[in-house]
Every structure is written in structure tokens, then in C-alpha cells.
Amino acid sequence: MNSKYKVLKFSSKKFENIEDLVSIEEPLEISLKFKEQDKWITQNLSITMRTPGNDEDLIRGFLFNEQIVQSIKDIESVESYGDKVGQYNIQNKILATLNNSQNVNISKIKRDFLINSSCGVCGKSSLDALEIIKKNKTNSSEPKITKETVILSPKILQENQSEFSKTGGIHASGLFSSNGELVNLREDVGRHNALDKLIGNALINDQLNPKTQFITCSGRLNFELVQKVLMTDIGIMIGVGAPTSLAIDLANKFDITLIGFVKRDSFNIYTNNKKVIVD
């Protein structure tokens, strides 16, 4: 699924207003129904951010890959439920009923998902937990960065990655000053991990200054990445790849300038273009 968003695009030395197709990102609340000591229990398991469609396949693969069930046959049924919600009018809740509780790893469920889940929004156990506990918006007009700074930041990021040249398969997040100077960088095979490492290290070293800094990431931009940056009060986020619909909506709500598809001579500004010098 995808949706059209209005974009201010910079290309061939000029800006123009266009419409861009963006992959839809929506939360899926996963619940599990199983028997424990002859009593049926329905338990919220997790929330994952996904592109809607094939949700039944998603939960079956998730339960099997996580070894909550040993066999796909242990899953009696999978069904979406609840009201159709949001601008895309879809169901965002799904229930898997297990028919062979003796083979279900109940202890793993409680240990890994109900207690210790810690993957940002993914670890929350209800849709209500998606409400951002953040009252203030980012600065709507500062810092200011040039289009040249936008275009150069991914190149600087890659040139300073210690592992990318070795594997070509690792992500990075970089903290930059508004003049394009790299302040800090961290790498990880997971985009979320790289950003967590960057922010954690910048915090412990007292490097964050939202009035004069922005963050650039090596991959696409989704809700969880924007949410992490929002917590730092940094108001500009740049990604080499595409943003998702929910990332754009969140950035727009908090005045974050979200920039994607950065190439050698082009990029797209998806929200709040006041912080990019367009003259």
C-alpha cells in the first residue's frame, strides 16, 4: 500500500512542488490466545510497524521465527478484528489462537515479549501506548542549513564509516552541525540500533545542541527513527532513502524538517521546508 504526499523537490538547481508516492506505515497490535493450566488466556504480545497487507502471513512467520510455536500447525486461526481506523480505514489489530498449548513456549512469551520488550514502539503492548509523551514541538525555523549541506551529509557519513567499506551492509547515523561538520557517528547492522548508539553517546558526552544540529541516517526513515530523533529536540532529519507515511505525519506534527532520497544533485523535503535555505 502507498499514498501520495506533496513534496518540495530540489533537482537540476531548482525547487518544484511535486506529488510523491510513499509507502504506508501503520501499527499492528498482535495478540495471542492460548491455554495455560486449562484456562484460556488472551494476551497482548507486541506492536510492530508494518505496511498493511498480508498481516496473517506476518503473524504466522513472526510466531514461528521467534519459536513461540514449534510448528505452524500449532496456530489454529489468525484473524483481524476491531474497528477500521485512520485515514486508510484499516484494521490494526490481529489475534492468533493456538491449538496446542503444550508446544507453546509460554515462558519465552513472558520473558521476551511481555516483560523485556524494548524495541521502541515495537515493545509496547497496546495501541494506546503509541501516544507520544512529548508536548513541545521542535524549533520551527532553526537551525538553517544549505542545500549543499543536505547533499553532502550522506557522503560525509559514508566516508567516515569504519565498517561500510568492509561489508557494504551496515547502517550509520551521524550528528552534524548546521555548517555540515560531522560531530559524532555510530554504526550498526540495524538502523534503529545505530541511531540509539549515536544518541546515547552524544548524550553521555554532552554533544547535543538542537539549535545548531541535524541528524543524517544511511537508510530509509520510518516512524520509530523519527520518534527517537524527536526525543532529542533536534528538528532536522535526513535520510538517504524514502520516508514512510507515518514518519512524515509524525515529523509534520512536531515541525521536524524531514528530508529523503538524497542524491548527488537532488533531494525531497517532505515537511517544514523553512529550515532549508532555498534561495
Overview of this protein structure:
The chain is of the alpha/beta class and 279 residues long. The protein folds into two domains: 105 residues, no CATH class; 143 residues, 3-Layer(aba) Sandwich (Cytidine Deaminase, domain 2), CATH 3.40.140. It contains seven helices and 14 strands. The strands form three sheets. Strands 2-1-13-12-11-10-8-9 form an eight-stranded mixed beta sheet, with helices on both faces. It has a four-stranded mixed beta sheet with strand order 4-3-6-5. A two-stranded parallel ribbon has the order 7-14. Helix 5 packs parallel to helix 6 and helix 6 runs parallel beside helix 7. The longest helix is centred in the C-terminal third of the chain and has 14 residues. The two termini are 36 Å apart. About 6% of the residues have low confidence.
